[in-house]
Predict the 3D structure of the following.
Amino acid sequence: MAPTRKLKKSFTNKKIAGVCGGIAEYFDLDPTLVRVAYILLALLSTGFPAILVYVILCFVMPDG
């Protein structure tokens, strides 16, 4: 049986709250790539929705 993965904040790849680092660890991606993708998403969506999603994930995602 394959081990289950949980989406959680990262302690090792933490810049602000560990949300992008946790997403990168979950999908086995480079954390810098996830952060750049998030910044591009924020700029293309006029910023507010992406910031709101980040703040929500900051409170909803469990600590790693």
The first helix runs from residue 19 to 27. The two ends are 23 Å apart (CA to CA). The chain has a mean pLDDT of 87. Residues 8 and 62 are 5 Å apart (CA to CA).
